[in-house]
User: Which sequence fits this backbone?
């Protein structure tokens, strides 16, 4: 019984304290204390996540499961990054504290973490986004087949936006003037009016969903955070 009730009570109490601290200046100190506890718990969760990552990939490597080489690369990259970040390998001395070798930030150039980010992480991220552009183009080609009214509207809007942002739109808009050009239609009507209205509607819907979910957790109605049994 207490295995379920105590976490629910802690979640409800913490949630109500944070809500009350937002509206009452007298509870700001308690709210700050709860936020500090959250940072400690988040750090512990990161440690548990790192241990779970190592155990999972070590199991795949030792059992020689299909794709174990990728697990070896992932585990090696994780351990190397963790090691050079903890010992601040290659980080220059701090001007403020020159007698303390570890006083400077681990992200300072030419430290090892800085080198890993500049020459491994950032190029890999750029490569992934470059590859995603081909998938986006393929999905757009399939979506722009005007078989329905919605697809036809999507196709027409996309063509107007593309023309307004390209050199071809500038050439075609020359006889129309600046007021009725493709660029004006794209920036004002589509992007500023239609697109902004849709974005605000989505944000309002998300806010209402977050408020409803938070209220269910505060009242103990939603217990999904306890596990699959609830």
Assistant:
């Amino acid at each position: 019984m207490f295995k379920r009730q105590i976490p629910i009570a802690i979640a409800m109490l913490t949630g109500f304290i944070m809500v009350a601290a937002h509206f009452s200046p007298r509870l700001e100190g308690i709210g700050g204390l709860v936020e500090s506890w959250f940072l400690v718990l988040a750090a512990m969760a990161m440690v548990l996540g790192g241990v779970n990552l190592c155990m999972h990939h070590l199991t795949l490597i030792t059992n020689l499961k299909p794709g174990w080489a990728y697990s070896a690369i992932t585990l090696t990259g994780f351990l190397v990054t963790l090691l050079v970040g903890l010992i601040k390998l290659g980080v220059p001395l701090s001007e403020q504290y020159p007698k303390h070798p570890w006083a400077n930030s681990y992200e300072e150039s030419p430290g090892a973490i800085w080198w890993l980010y500049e020459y491994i992480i950032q190029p890999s991220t750029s490569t992934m986004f470059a590859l995603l552009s081909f998938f986006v183009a393929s999905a757009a080609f399939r979506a722009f087949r005007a078989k329905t009214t919605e697809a036809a509207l999507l196709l027409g809007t996309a063509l107007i936006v593309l023309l307004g942002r390209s050199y071809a739109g500038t050439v075609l808009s020359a006889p129309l003037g600046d007021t009725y050009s493709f660029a004006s239609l794209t920036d004002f009507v589509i992007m500023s009016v239609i697109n902004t209205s849709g974005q605000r509607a989505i944000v309002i819907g998300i806010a209402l969903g977050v408020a409803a979910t938070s209220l269910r957790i505060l009242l103990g109605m939603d217990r999904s955070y306890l596990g699959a049994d609830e």
Summary: The first helix runs from residue 2 to 23. Residues 186 and 192 are 8 Å apart (CA to CA). The mean pLDDT is 83.
